[in-house]
Amino acid sequence: MIDALVSGTLMEAPITRTKxxxxxxxxxxxxxxxxxxxMDDGEAVLVSAIAFDxxxxxALAALDAGDPVSLAGSLNVGxxxxxxxxxxxxxxxxxxxxxxxxxxxxxRQAARGSGAPxxxxxxxxxxxxxxxxxxxxxxxxx
Length: 142
Description:
Blueprint: E1 2-10, E2 15-20, E3 26-38, E4 44-51, H1 54-61, E5 68-81, E6 87-100, H2 101-112
Parallel strand pairs: 4-6
Antiparallel strand pairs: 1-3, 1-5, 2-3, 3-4, 5-6
């Protein structure tokens, strides 16, 4: 198994699914999502991910199409033949951890010691404490 970190943008909102078992029973829920990742040469690769962990499922379900996301987990790699006859790369991670822009904001706030996340202002931006000025207590050099 290969452990990998895949970053890109969600092509569509993640989908919560259940697997039907014999006798009409339903298995545990899982979440699938498709992420568009851009390679060094500018070509985009489609990554189809699946998540079974409750924390990861909750994090993915809160996201929407176009949101940036980083997924970590075990990777299955293969190839398939596209409609135009070319051979394409198939990347299918089983996600064990998720990192989003929201998670980064919360970690930065925790590092600053502000505790709870800031509420957005009228323009939708989270307020920040003022940054210290380099010459706040001194004269500005001429």
